[in-house]
Every structure is written in structure tokens, then in C-alpha cells.
């Protein structure tokens, strides 16, 4: 059920953190990987090296998923190099960490374009390469349903992302394509280092997590693997939270 040999997966923002963990986990189970990045080429190359060490092929593609032309060019390369796509993981994310009353139109549009609208563009461009049984996974966060300090644009965009997944689930279901969201708890990645109150966030999360430890990128990758397997054939349009129980504490 977890033997996915020969399938092809695209992970946006796959050079670091959760994206890298998903890329490696899927490669461990036989998938060839496409790592999308926009700035950190060396990190993308490091991920590719880790994937190739597992005996799988890895292609790295620079593309800003917020730009239609970049996404179109990326899928042109994927079509030429692989001819098909079995798994699409929309993981790339960005946003401005400011109080809501300090946000500008640019801040809002930036987060919405990268964190939410990009999924729609990726699906529209990727669909010609995806057959029945293909899987789409969007990576979200608890900020989609909880108010987190300075997280307004990211939280709102993640809420939009989760709503988009539900609507796409209805349209893609008849095609045999499964689409779901994985919502990660407090994960200590490079993205969290941008928070001025990072230590407080991690400390509170650890204290309030029933399972007694923080969520790791590998924990999220395990759920992504499950969603790619036949075990998840009847999971559609859902948000699966991976946080050790943190969210249930209110």
C-alpha cells in the first residue's frame, strides 16, 4: 500500500522544512520527485541529493507559484521530462507578519496569491498530466482557524486554501482524483524563525500538546504518505490536523 514505485510527485516549496520532508518520505517509498523552489537553490539541490541517494530521480525547477507564467513553464518542463504527474503537493507559502491594522493591499494580495490562489493555478495546469487515482495535498496551518499574533494575512489565506480544497474535491472527485489538506501544528522550521515571538510559540505549543512533544516535518510527511496511498482512497476534501492534540486544547 505504501509501495509507490514509479509514480511522480511535485512538491512546491520542496527545498526545506515540511516540503523537503515530504519529498524524502515519498522518495523512500519509490516515487520520483520534482522539487519546486524560488530562492534557495542550494537547499533544493540538497533535497535532490537526498532523494537521489534513495535511488530515485529528482528534478529541481525554479518557479514562483504565484505567477501564472512560471507555473505554465514549470508544467511544460514536467510534461517533457516525465509525461505524467501522480501527486501534487502545494506547500510553498509566504506572508507578511504584521498586525491586521498595519496591512496594505500588497501584503494581502501577496499572501493570497502564494498561499491560496497558487493551488488553483497548479491544479488547472497540472490536471492534463493527472489521471484517475492522482493525489493533491495542500499544506495548511492552525492559523486558518485560530487567531495568532501578526498572522492575519497567512491565516486568512490558509483559510481560503482549505475552502478551495473542499470546492475542488467536489469537482475532481468524479475524475477519481483525491484532494485533501494537511494542517500542521507548531513546527520548528525556518519559516517560524521569522516570528519575533518564536520561542514563546514553541514553548506554549509544547506545554499544551497532550502527546508531549512538538510536531516535526517528518510527522507531517507521514500523513502526506498516507494520503498518497490506497489506504486513503475514501478520504476526500478533508483537513487532517497533525499537531499531537495541540488544537483540541482551545
UniProtKB/TrEMBL annotation:
InterPro entries xrefs: Enoyl-ACP_Rdtase_NADH (IPR014358), NAD(P)-bd_dom_sf (IPR036291), SDR_fam (IPR002347)
Entry annotated with the keyword NADP: no
SUPFAM superfamilies xref list: NAD(P)-binding Rossmann-fold domains (SSF51735)
Q: In which pathway does it act?
A: Lipid metabolism
Judging by the UniProt lineage, the source's domain of life is Bacteria
Q: Which reaction does it catalyse?
A: a 2,3-saturated acyl-[ACP] + NAD(+) = a (2E)-enoyl-[ACP] + NADH + H(+)
Q: Which UniProt keywords apply?
A: Fatty acid biosynthesis, Fatty acid metabolism, Lipid biosynthesis, Lipid metabolism, NAD, Oxidoreductase
Broad enzyme group: oxidoreductase
Q: One Pfam family name from the record?
A: adh_short_C2
| E.C. numbers | 1.3.1.9
NCBIfam families on file: PRK08063.1
> Into which family does the record put it?
Belongs to the short-chain dehydrogenases/reductases (SDR) family. FabI subfamily.
Give the protein's recorded name.
Enoyl-[acyl-carrier-protein] reductase [NADH]
